Amino acid sequence: MTGYDAVVLAGGAARRLGGADKPTLRVGGRTLLDRVLEACADAEETVVVGPRRPTARPVRWAREEPPGGGPLAGLAAGLRQTASATTLVLSADLPFLRAETVRALLAAAATGGPYVEGVLLTDFDGRDQPLVAAYRTEPLRRELALLATEHGGLAGLPLRLLTDELTLGRFAHPTASFDCDTWEDVATARARIRDDGSVLDEWISAAKTELGIDLDVDTTALLDLARDAAHGVARPAAPLTTFLVGYAAGRAGGGPEAVAEATRKAVALAQRWAAEAAAGAAAAGGGAVAASAEDGKAGKPAEDGAAGKPTENGTGAEAAPDGTAGDPAIGRADGKPVDGGAAGNPADRGADGKADGAR
């Protein structure tokens, strides 16, 4: 991709928002201006035209003359601080603009041919969006100078006076040019940001902005680490481990390499921890089997005859002292105990089976 400068117009009055400072409205945890600045973060120079505001990354500031003088006056002010042959022009209220869309737009402008002086984004309905566009800088300056001469200045002039004089290509994208002109637009943007499946990326970007962190984070590696810590150690270990990784990376210099190295070490530790825990559980399970064999719960039968080893009387239980469960050799054939001769040894019975003492 060829180098480019970016001019971000952030000086509008936002009348339909009741005069609210539109670029500082938050969508998905970040200001609209910061979202746009992230999309053009690889610009060689970024100029924001409008009142100075806090931003997540360094920019140059310019002011249109007069303040609030409209997009052409703002564009001319921004171009005075740029030098690249290509200028990306953006409004400051584009919640769905992404870096990949910016790169595609710039690529279209670079390959459009020698007579193409810029490429505009077109929206879902096919309408031109001249404030989401990549222009060749020289024709842009030329036409702005001609318009200023013709009209005695640029304040209040509509954008179409500029775009009508340029040879422009088109690049279609259904959502990148969605802007926030009303409170309904802001509400729609906030709802879509949470529903479009990228809420985690949005949250990471918002957190980085809030914490002043300018670092590309490998969220996949960190999520894998959190999973390993939660499953291999304990659930509360996940957030604590990622915190410790961040702290260690900060002490080591805080760059992407430091984060990657701290993450690698923590992942290896979590995996070793899980393996050791599994081995310990297996060893403990084997010991439990051996112990249960010794106490008669499994394996060797207990000596009291409750289960397993047959007792001397062959019934599975020792004969009680009172003969209530006696040896068949001294009890009746039906197993009832002998009591005062009422039940004798079968050897002492007659042919009719009655005990001799009962005859």
TrEMBL record:
* GO molecular function, a single term: GTP binding
Q: What is the protein's given name?
A: Molybdenum cofactor guanylyltransferase
Q: Which SUPFAM superfamilies match?
A: Nucleotide-diphospho-sugar transferases (SSF53448)
User: GO biological process annotations for this chain's record?
Assistant: Mo-molybdopterin cofactor biosynthetic process
Keyword terms of this UniProt record: Cytoplasm, GTP-binding, Magnesium, Metal-binding, Molybdenum cofactor biosynthesis, Nucleotide-binding, Nucleotidyltransferase, Transferase
Q: Which InterPro entries match?
A: DUF6457 (IPR045598), MobA-like_NTP_Trfase (IPR025877), Molybde_CF_guanTrfase (IPR013482), Nucleotide-diphossugar_trans (IPR029044)
> Which source organism does the UniProt entry give?
Streptomyces telluris
Q: Which Gene3D superfamilies match?
A: Spore Coat Polysaccharide Biosynthesis Protein SpsA, Chain A
One protein family per Pfam: NTP_transf_3
Query: Compositional bias (Basic and acidic residues) spans?
Result: 294-303, 349-359
- Which CDD domains does the record associate with it? MobA
Q: For the DUF6457 domain, which residue ranges apply?
A: 197-277
Residue ranges for the region (Disordered) are 294-359
State if Iron is listed as a keyword: no
What range(s) does the MobA-like NTP transferase domain occupy? 6-151
Entry keyword Magnesium = yes
